[in-house]
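2.7 Reproducibility. Because tokenized structures are sensitive to small changes in the input, we list the exact sequence used for Transcriptional regulator of acetoin/glycerol metabolism, including any N-terminal residues retained from the expression construct. No trimming or masking was applied before prediction.
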Amino acid sequence: MTTGTDELRDPIAKSWQRAAMAGLTPGSALDHLTYSDVDTSGPLLSAASEVLDELNDQLQGTMFSTLLVDREGRIAQRWCGDRGGRRAFDNLGLDVGASLLEEAVGTNALGTVLETRTSITINGGEHFAVPLRRFSCYGHPIFHPTTRRIEGVLDITALMEEASPLLPPLVARAVADIEQRLLDRSRVSDKQLLAAFQAAGTRRRAVVAIGQDLFMSNQAASDLLGSTDVALLRMLVGDLHDNADVDLTLESGLEVRVEASRIGGARGGALLHVEPRRELRVAPHAVRPDLAHAPVLVSGPPGSGRSTEARRASEVQPVTVLTAASALLDGAEAWARNFGALVRAGQGTVCVDGIDLLPDDLVDLVASHLAERRAPRLVLVCGPVDALSGRAAALAGECTERRLLAPLSSRPHELPELVRRMLADLGADPSLHFTPGALRALSAQPWPGNLRELRAVVDHVVRHQRTGAVVLDQLPEAYRAQEPTKRLAPIEHAERAVIVEALREHDGNKVKAAQSLGISRTTLYAKMRALRITVY
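Resulting structure tokens (single pass, no recycling of outputs):
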């Protein structure tokens, strides 16, 4: 029996490592199974039921069992060909609703397939959890043919030491049939949704139709909604079981009421009417009187655009910038004199760039003015808030208005616009542009240097190419690798950005983040896993 990762095949060894990093141990991995409700009328089970009935008929009386999990790793259907298999599953608590995610129970042919998005055979001793080592199984992912989103996993398992080589083609054929039925059913529901959209379509009222493979909006909705708004509406529809009215704030700041109506039952989509609740009354650069002296904190890792964001936050003119570097170069006394003069002038905005790098006596000086809440207004710039300590942390804590900038690696959806701006700033020829393939490769990079590193890459390209399309091979060699992030579609990038922002706003509290997004915590966890959200 396998006991160490040195003896395991590469994909199994990596899975064991992920399980260990999740805090699991082989002997107790099944001790705390979690259960949740499964949508028995959803598109996956509706498409799979006939296929599984036929497959199970073929396996009746054998030692084989079939398991189907949804995209959140929950057992959606369990069938056993004999009493031995049924008894074994019952003893382990593996029944409908149980979570088989790799992070919950370790290596298995369902959770591991969800994690890797590829089919896999797992023989007895290759299971991470000791109680599962009696089983051998083969799992195959089920993708929607249009969206390529993973819908679930089909598995055949048996109480044996090694899985039969006949399982892969048998399961693959069943999965192909399920995927075809998913496609056929989505076409029917899309027709119903299209008819409802056409019936509701009015030029004056914002109308949106969202289905599994369909998105439609009239001109009024297009004028209201940004890409992150669309992503939020998609999440709302994904968690919608009946008609509902939901109040949201769009990325523009406009408060709206969304009237959502299910079309075509649980397998269909939804028709959304978006009605503004009030118009924005504050001009983009206007400052409310009660906020004129309120301090602003701009926080983020180096190179994430803190200085640019600080300039945007400095809405009260004139703006003067005092840096921590000047305190080092010119001395603390000179810095204190300059700050004192600005305070006595009593006007505009003073941007203090690098409060986490200032000596304590200068931090105390800034804090004393901040406590008075009078002109000039303060905009404070620092590194990530969770890395602050001492007086700098206390000073940052006085700022109720915060602009928290995420690392560039968690904002891949912004790359096309950032690259376009950088090309313009560098004076590149208007015809010079990055191809989708090049942008996908850039989206996959870790970007430890954030915007500065990206600008260096764009500058390299501008110096080596004057016009035309920038393809993958014309990027610096170190930036050509394409990681799994490339699988995300544009709408998924936008969806990822909405979730990351909600998590940051609520300091990582997933319950509050899910409530603010209008989705369940289970849905939030599933989306975080699917979109590879680990840093926020």
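The domain at 296-405 is CATH 3.40.50.300 (Rossmann fold).
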